[in-house]
Structures are given as C-alpha cells and as structure tokens.
Design goal:
By secondary structure, the chain is mainly alpha-helical. It has 14 helices and 6 strands. It folds into 2 domains: 2-77 and 126-206, no CATH class; 209-311, Serine Threonine Protein Phosphatase 5, Tetratricopeptide repeat (Alpha Horseshoe), CATH 1.25.40. The chain is 51% helix and 10% strand. The N and C termini lie far apart (72 Å). The model is unreliable at 1-22, 201-205 and 307-312 (pLDDT under 50).
C-alpha cells in the first residue's frame, strides 16, 4: 500500500510537469458503483473504465476496486479558443509540452499540422494519462489497455519521442514514464453536468462552443444547397438557427450571413439584407464584390448597408 501511494503521488505530479494536459473533475464513489458504470454514465462507453483506473492508479500492483466514499478524478478533455497567430505547433507546445505533438492535436480537431487553425475556432485538448511502467509492460499492451488497439503502439512511441518499433512489443523499463493521449474521450450530457458541478470552469471546459462549431460545419452545406435550389425561406430559418446555436468562427459567421444576404434579397427584404451584408463584411473584411459574380440587387443591398453605417 505504501508503494502504491508513492507511485500515485509521483504520477500525479508528473501529469502536470511532463507536458501532460491533465484535466479532470472529482467524483465521490457511491455504494454499489463500479468503474464501468461510471464510465458509461460520463463517457457513454463502459470500456473507458480502463482510463478511469489508470487516472486513479487503481491498476497499480495488480489493481484495486473503488470503494464507497473514495474520491476519484474523472478525466475530461479541455478546450481552447484559437487566437490570432496561433498554430498547431505553438498550441501543442503550450498544451502538450512539445511542438512536435502538433499532428496529434491537429488530427483530433479534424485538421492537419501544416495548416493553422482558424481564429476563433474552439479546439479540443486531449486528456493525457501518465503511466508508470511496471515490470513486463510494453507499448502495445498500453495501447490496447488505454486506446483500445494494440496496433496504435506507434502513436504512443511517437508521442513519447521513442524510436518506432515494428510491433511495440519491446519491454519498457520498470518505472519508465509513458504519456498516453486519450483522443476519443468525450463527455455525455450527464458527464458535462457533473463536470459543471465539480469545477468552477465546468461550463467552459465542456466545449459548448466546439459543439456549436461542429454542428455549424454540418449545417452549412445544407444551407448552401437550399440557397442553390432557391429555397430561400428554408435558408433564413436554418441560417438563423445556426447563428443562434453558439459561438461560431468568423469564417462560419461570414458563410451564414452571406447566404442570408442572398436569401433576404430574393425575398425582397432590403433592411434584413442590409443587416446581413454588414455582418458578412464584418466577419470577412476581404470580401470581393466583383460585378461579374455579384448581382446588382446584392450590390445595392450592401451599398445601402455601407451608407447606413456611415450615416450612423
């Protein structure tokens, strides 16, 4: 028991000092609760019990079960709103401790490391589990235990700056520290509520803006399809619903307002068209108004918006 406590304290400190983005909220075990039940409630996946066990060092020295009244740390992803000039390498350095981990951060957020994220985009930061290797541990075993696939051992080797092996079957040294990014960790609505109760910043950490931005990415193609098909009422309804869904990026806002501008012009609503044009140009100051591609009605609506702004 004494050795287990020492390992627990050591690993808890390492989680914050070796580039691990450790984010968690507390949970007190209730009578009859198991790790699988907790994982199902907060993640929607009972297999995540291995992550709960690893984060709370319940798998050390052969493992131990949680008991009523025990305080567990429930791992959770964190979220960050991208600022001007930030890139995946700078964000990886800040959040994951090494700019070379940019590819991990970019892939998690459906990007690529060499194309910077969009200003205002909310990105997800993975929870990084700190594992202290025991005798006989191998990378492929850790990948299977915490990532669900032994073939992902190469990801662990790359993340930890190790020379890649063909199978990940090379034994680790006793006490060696391995960082395991948990990329598929998402909270259920119940998990988000529990996080909000357990942390002062729960509402921000729960990634509400990220949810809104991802929903917008799914809705925008539909808005544009409605626009091309001349379904202008549907464009107005869906476009305004997207705008009200949460904090979007400037690129997303510009796309929605541009679609609304065309729809309002087609519906002969000049005041609303002027407002949409103002919002469009605010979010995309570089917008071009080439007469060869922009109809006179749209240019007139935007001319009125510019005049109204000057008069004001």
């Amino acid at each position: 028991m004494k050795e287990r406590c020492i390992v627990h304290i050591l690993a808890a400190g390492l989680a914050f000092t070796i580039g691990g983005a450790a984010h968690a909220f507390p949970h007190v075990v209730r009578p009859g609760e198991t790790l699988a039940e907790i994982a199902t409630r907060v993640y929607g996946n009972p297999k995540m019990e291995s992550v709960l066990a690893g984060a709370n060092f319940l798998d050390v020295q052969g493992g131990s079960a949680p008991v009523p009244g025990m305080r567990l740390e429930i791992p959770a992803p964190a979220y960050h709103r991208v600022s001007v000039g930030e890139s995946w390498p700078t964000l990886a350095l800040e959040w994951l401790g090494d700019g070379k981990r940019a590819d991990v951060l970019a892939r998690l957020n459906h990007g690529v490391a060499w194309i910077p994220p969009v200003e205002g985009q909310e990105i997800q930061i993975p929870y990084v589990l700190t594992v202290i290797a025991a005798d006989g541990d191998r990378m492929d075993q850790l990948a299977h235990r915490y990532m669900g696939d032994a073939n992902r051992s190469w990801e662990l080797e790359a993340y930890n700056g190790r020379k890649p092996s063909s199978t990940g079957a090379i034994p680790l040294k006793h006490g060696e520290v391995v960082l395991v990014p948990i990329l598929d960790l998402t909270l259920t609505e119940e998990g988000k509520r529990e996080l909000h109760i357990g942390t002062e910043q729960g509402q921000n950490v729960a990634g509400r803006a990220l949810d809104a931005q991802r929903r917008a990415d799914g809705e925008l193609p539909v808005v544009l399809a409605d626009l091309r098909a001349g379904r202008y009422v549907e464009v107005v309804a869906r476009g305004n619903r997207v705008l009200g869904s949460g904090e979007l990026t400037k690129v997303q806002l510009a796309s929605v307002h541009r679609a609304l501008l065309e729809a309002y012009v087609a519906l002969d609503a000049p005041a609303l068209a002027a407002g949409a044009c103002t919002a469009y140009r605010t979010n995309d100051p570089s917008a071009k108004w080439d007469p060869a591609f922009v109809s006179p009605k749209i240019r007139n609506a935007c001319a009125g918006a510019v005049a109204a702004t000057r008069d004001h």
